[in-house]
């Protein structure tokens, strides 16, 4: 039970024991000192003390090998990070948010330790959110036959989160080399474990899952933690399946410096947990079994004191982040098209339907780049390739390793895409985010993550993902098969949003997206998949740069700005008014919402003096509101009429065709609005 | 009867109460109390009959003082020694690990050659699982201050009588 284990107080090499004590003492010195920075108004306003988790955190860091493994520490993992190799100075630089903070240059909250170049990843503050990323890395290891483990560390309350269930279910089903460590201190802030879940040993919630092994350890004990983590890692590598580790800890202090545990834990309990201090226990063991003398312990204390003083001095002298740098790393530089710099072509190439253009571009890019992957719900089973058959034939051609079905778990689909991107920069993932855009909402927290990552990590990591979403109405689909969600998602900096209306643009934007680093939302107007209106010739290597609108019809009387389904309606209405009244209406197809081609919009308004914005999404708080505001700000002096907007009513989209027609924009509504603006 | 060494934490509260009741049940010259927090191998080996207070901490752990003595216990030769264990646990709030510490330490002593005596029936307790149970018996006396405190007295009394026989 003790002495015949790999690590034991009696038999482990003295230098190893000394090294551990050094790391643990250093960690505690920093953990105890962190609140001082806040008291002195230097920073570190968020600090979640780890005291009481010492054994398991030492062990996680010690078994992590930066050459083979990936580590996802949570906000309490200071000792884990130190044990994995971060220096005291790096910990303080993160704590006080300096420009040289290796986690993200002071951009992310304090106590969120990371070092992306060592595969110690920057993670969200949302508890357990990174479990999905760890699973994605595990998938990368699996696909590239890499031997290593992906370690996700989190508190026990995270088991209440749905995405943690999704992560464990997925790792179990896909048999991925992931270790999920649950550091159980009995509390989620002030909420006791009994209010989270019925099992006191929270990992037992997953005991029915296949293909995984559950390990238990005393996270307060160095040796038990070291032995169990070592065993778990070995088991995962040998079996290529996930492991769960329940590490029982105590939380000696409050959850963080914004919490006061005196309000909900009595003195007896606070004393009881303090008496179980893992560092004190380790020191007692070292002297009891004559492994290190009291003098040797004192030497380490002194060394640590000097080390912390030195780190403190250096960190204080480090530069602060430059306020002018805030726009750095919002979104990475995209692929530049040399052949089609404006995203226009000379109409060569076969006429294709929009759905064919997407399918064929996906295939072409998958042939071009072997590091491409596609997954989503319902996307690959024999002859079926997605609910609309957009990915038809892909699994057959590229194999189940690259093109595969995902479980009905949208957050898992996107979160594991983010994670797999972390395994290797060259990977490009196409995630069919949901069967319909309407079902994408459960993935929203991972969507937010994807938009944050590049900025948060100060440019060190960006998920290389194209999310495809079958969007919009006009199919009699009702409330859950008709939504346009681009307006809501456009409020999040860090994502590109494109919305083609024609086959050639769908092909060109998709190719650019797949060749670019970064995160792109590719909205597919599903009503146009097979529409004759959207058929165009498509050059075989066509590319459309982001942020290049296309003037579909030139005109001088009115500028119409649109995208997606409504582009065709605007063209039809403009042509009709030209024929009937001789009006010269310019129709701009945005193609990209983010980045937005403001120059083309403003240049057109300078010419016409009038603007009408049309989209299928709701007028109220829709993307058109932003365009209208830009016009008001930057082109007011050129306007001869109020900026008008046409779009959906501020209602859900009804199922009955009569309701749908009343709600969605159509050619007639657009024509009426055009006439109204033209009257000025 | 060989002299009994009664080992428990002198700084504890409930464990100490039970230990004192047990001590009172024997003639003072046959039982000696020793603080488990500072116990040495020498003190431990001095007795042939031992009674240990082993409360279950947290979700099924040994108290630190016993856990820290574990590496020493494992290397001791305890052949022929009779060890009786009493544990404290809470069967309502911790039903998954009721009295686990008794089972963990019993196994440790047995692996060093000791005989565990003072086994008691699980009748009258309700819990989900316990490492302390073998053949429907606890590997010692199971005390539950939190939910069955009224039964402490009679349980301790019966156990003392049982030990008097088993220690002979």
Question: How would you describe this structure in keywords?
Answer:
heterodimer, A: 680 residues, alpha/beta, Rossmann fold, 3 domains, five-stranded parallel sheet, 21 helices, 21 strands, 38% helix, 14% strand, B: 168 residues, six-stranded parallel sheet, three-stranded antiparallel sheet, 6 helices, 35% helix, 20% strand, globular
Summarize the structure in short.
The complex is a heterodimer of chains A (about 675) and B (about 170). Chain A has about 675 residues and is of the alpha/beta class.
Structural write-up:
The complex is a heterodimer of chains A (680) and B (168). With 680 residues, chain A is of the alpha/beta class. In chain A, helix 5 packs across helix 13 and helix 17 packs across helix 21. The N and C termini of chain A lie far apart (88 Å). Chain B starts with a strand and ends with a helix. Chain B is globular and about 40 Å long. Chain B contains six helices and nine strands; from the N terminus they run E-H-E-H-E-H-E-H-E-E-E-E-E-H-H. In chain B, the strands form two sheets. In chain B, strands 1, 2, 3, 4, 5 and 9 form a six-stranded parallel beta sheet that branches. Chain B has a three-stranded antiparallel beta sheet with strand order 6-8-7, with no helix packed on it. Chain B is α/β, with parallel strands linked by helices and 168 residues long. The model of chain B has no long low-confidence stretch (mean pLDDT 97). Chains A and B meet through helix 9 of A and helix 3 and helix 4 of B.
Q: How is the secondary structure organized here?
A:
The complex is a heterodimer of chains A (680) and B (168).
Chain A: H1 14-39, H2 54-63, E1 70-72, H3 78-84, H4 88-95, H5 131-143, E2 150-155, H6 162-174, E3 178-184, E4 187-188, E5 191-192, E6 213-218, H7 222-239, E7 243-248, H8 267-274, H9 278-288, H10 294-317, E8 351-352, H11 354-368, E9 372-376, H12 394-398, E10 403-405, H13 410-423, E11 428-432, H14 444-456, E12 465-471, H15 486-489, E13 496-498, H16 503-515, E14 519-525, E15 536-537, E16 550-553, E17 558-562, H17 565-581, E18 585-589, E19 592-594, H18 598-608, E20 611-618, H19 623-634, E21 644-648, H20 657-663, H21 667-678
Parallel strand pairs in A: 1-2, 2-3, 3-7, 6-7, 9-10, 9-11, 11-12, 12-14, 13-14, 17-18, 17-20, 20-21
Antiparallel strand pairs in A: 4-5, 8-15, 13-19, 16-18
Helix pairs in contact in A: 1-3, 1-4, 1-9, 1-10, 2-3, 2-7, 4-10, 5-6, 5-13, 11-16, 13-14, 17-21
Chain B: E1 4-8, H1 14-24, E2 31-35, H2 41-45, E3 49-53, H3 64-74, E4 82-88, H4 100-111, E5 115-117, E6 120-121, E7 133-134, E8 137-138, E9 141-143, H5 145-148, H6 152-166
């Amino acid at each position: 039970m003790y002495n015949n284990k790999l690590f034991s107080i009696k038999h482990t090499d003295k230098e190893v024991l000394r090294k551990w004590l050094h790391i643990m003492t250093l960690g505690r010195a920093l953990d105890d000192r962190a609140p001082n920075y806040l008291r002195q108004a230097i920073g570190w306003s968020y600090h979640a003390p780890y005291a009481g988790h010492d054994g398991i955190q030492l062990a996680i860091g010690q078994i992590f090998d930066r050459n083979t493994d990936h580590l996802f520490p949570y906000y309490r993992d200071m000792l884990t990070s130190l044990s994995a190799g971060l220096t005291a100075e790096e910990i303080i630089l993160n704590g006080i948010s300096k420009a040289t903070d290796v986690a993200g240059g002071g951009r992310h909250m304090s106590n969120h330790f990371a070092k992306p170049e060592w595969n110690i990843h920057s993670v969200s503050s949302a508890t357990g959110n990174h479990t999905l990323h760890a699973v994605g890395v595990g998938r990368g290891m699996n696909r590239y036959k890499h031997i290593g483990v992906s370690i996700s560390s989190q508190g026990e309350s995270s088991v209440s989160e749905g995405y943690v269930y999704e992560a464990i279910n997925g790792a179990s089903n896909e048999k991925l080399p992931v270790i999920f460590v649950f550091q159980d201190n009995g509390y989620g802030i002030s909420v006791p474990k009994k209010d989270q879940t019925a099992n006191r040993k929270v990992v037992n919630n997953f005991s029915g899952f296949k293909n995984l092994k559950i390990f238990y350890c005393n996270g307060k004990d160095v040796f038990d933690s070291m032995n169990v983590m070592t065993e778990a890692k070995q088991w995962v590598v040998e079996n290529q399946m996930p492991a769960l580790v329940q590490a029982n800890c105590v939380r000696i202090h409050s959850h963080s410096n914004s919490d006061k545990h005196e309000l909900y834990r009595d003195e007896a309990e606070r004393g009881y947990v303090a008496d179980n201090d893992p560092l004190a226990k380790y020191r007692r063991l070292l002297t009891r079994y004559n492994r290190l003398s009291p003098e040797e312990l004192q030497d380490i204390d002194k060394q640590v004191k000097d080390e912390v003083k030195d780190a403190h001095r250096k960190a204080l002298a480090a530069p602060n982040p430059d306020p002018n740098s805030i726009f750095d790393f919002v979104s990475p530089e995209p692929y530049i098209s040399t052949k089609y710099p404006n995203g226009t072509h000379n109409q060569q190439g076969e006429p294709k339907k929009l759905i064919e253009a997407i399918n064929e571009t996906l295939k072409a890019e998958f042939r071009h780049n072997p590091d491409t992957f596609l997954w989503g719900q319902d996307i690959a089973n024999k002859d079926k390739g997605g609910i609309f058959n957009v990915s038809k034939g892909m699994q057959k051609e590229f194999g189940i390793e690259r093109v595969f079905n995902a479980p009905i778990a949208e957050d898992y689909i996107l979160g594991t895409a983010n994670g797999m991107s972390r395994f290797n920069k060259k990977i490009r993932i196409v995630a069919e985010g949901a069967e319909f855009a309407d079902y994408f909402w459960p993935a929203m927290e991972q969507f937010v993550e994807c938009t944050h990552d590049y900025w948060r990590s100060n440019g060190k990591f960006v998920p290389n993902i194209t999310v495809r979403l079958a969007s919009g109405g006009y199919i009699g689909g009702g409330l859950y098969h008709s939504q346009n969600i681009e307006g809501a998602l456009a409020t999040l900096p860090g994502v590109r949003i494109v919305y083609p209306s024609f086959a050639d643009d769908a092909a060109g934007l998709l190719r650019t997206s797949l060749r670019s680093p970064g995160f792109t939302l590719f909205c597919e107007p599903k009503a146009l998949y097979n529409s004759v209106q959207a058929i165009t010739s498509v050059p075989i290597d066509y590319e459309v740069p982001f942020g290049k609108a296309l003037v579909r019809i030139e005109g001088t009387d009115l500028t119409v700005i649109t995208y997606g389904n409504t582009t065709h309606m605007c063209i039809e209405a403009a042509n009709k008014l030209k024929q009937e009244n001789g009006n010269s209406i310019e129709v701009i197809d945005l193609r990209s919402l983010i980045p937005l081609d403001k120059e083309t919009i403003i240049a057109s308004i300078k010419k016409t003096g009038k603007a009408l914005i049309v989209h299928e999404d709701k007028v109220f708080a829709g993307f058109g509101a932003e365009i209208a505001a830009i016009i008001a700000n930057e082109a007011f002096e050129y306007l001869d009429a109020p900026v008008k907007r046409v779009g959906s009513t501020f209602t859900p989209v009804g199922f009955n065709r009569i309701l749908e027609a009343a709600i969605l924009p159509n050619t007639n509504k657009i024509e009426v609005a055009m006439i109204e603006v033209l009257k000025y | 009867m060989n002299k009994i060494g009664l080992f428990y934490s002198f700084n504890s509260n409930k464990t100490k109460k039970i230990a004192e009741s047990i001590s009172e049940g024997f003639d003072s010259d046959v039982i000696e109390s020793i603080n488990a927090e500072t116990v040495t191998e020498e003190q431990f080996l001095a007795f042939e009959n031992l009674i240990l207070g082993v409360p279950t901490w947290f979700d099924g752990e040994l108290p630190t003082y016993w856990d820290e003595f574990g590496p020493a216990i494992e290397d001791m030769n305890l052949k022929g020694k009779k060890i009786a264990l009493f544990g404290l646990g809470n069967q309502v709030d911790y039903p998954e690990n009721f009295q686990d510490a008794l089972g963990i330490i019993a196994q440790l002593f047995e692996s060093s050659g000791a005989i565990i005596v003072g086994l008691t029936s699980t009748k009258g307790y309700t819990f989900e699982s316990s490492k302390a149970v073998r053949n429907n018996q606890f590997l010692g006396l199971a005390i539950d201050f939190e939910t069955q405190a009224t039964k402490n007295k009679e349980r301790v009394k019966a156990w003392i009588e049982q030990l008097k026989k088993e220690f002979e």
